[in-house]
Design brief:
about 160 residues; alpha/beta; five-stranded parallel β-sheet; binds adenosine-5'-diphosphate
């Protein structure tokens, strides 16, 4: 049976840290769906459509990766797609508690869908969409932190 993983997140916007997880995931699973979940409480900078566009551009070299969006509950989405795995990235210890809570809830909702974590590449340990937005707002360079298409989009937003 072919293995499908869902890589969910806000991706507001996608960073090189996200991309690293997506690329590594694409080497392990037959197919990876990157799914944008709109977390309004995070007060997003980019619309869902913009985030999908940026993710699609940033992953176009990966033939087994597709980009999608969902409004509902992650576990319902994973079930609907018949995914076996939810793939998440882990940075510092600070991610752990939050991820543990979500994973436990998702397991309670569906014990057959496994959540798997990949440790961040060291160079991206302190990289987050929020820090990228903070830096870009003051027009400092984010060139090494995000794909080129995102760098341009950030310049456009903050010009
Ligand atoms: P969410 O709002 O669901 O946390 P994010 O877009 O912030 O969505 O992150 C999506 C996933 O990518 C999460 O699993 C997060 O831990 C992971 N991630 C974010 N930044 C990095 C990074 N620099 N290195 C590895 N994983 C990361």
């Amino acid at each position: 049976m072919s293995k499908l993983a869902i890589c969910p997140g806000s991706f507001d916007p996608v960073t090189n840290g996200h991309l690293d997880i997506i690329e590594r995931g694409s080497r392990i699973f037959d197919h990876v769906i990157v799914a944008v979940f709109n977390n309004q409480s995070k007060n997003p900078l980019f619309t869902v459509e913009e985030r999908i566009y940026l993710l699609t551009e940033a992953t176009k070299h990966l033939s087994n990766v597709t980009v999608d969006a969902s409004e509902g509950l992650l576990i319902d989405y994973a079930r609907e797609k018949q995914a076996q795995v939810i793939l998440r990235g882990l940075r510092a210890v600070s991610d752990f508690e939050y991820e543990m809570q979500i994973t436990s809830m998702n397991r309670k909702l569906d014990k057959d869908i496994e959540t798997m974590f990949m440790m961040t590449n060291n160079q991206y340990s302190f990289l987050s969409s929020s820090i990228v937005k903070e830096v870009a707002k003051y027009r400092a360079t984010v060139a090494d932190l995000v794909p080129e298409v995102v760098e341009k989009a950030l310049k456009e937003k903050y010009k």
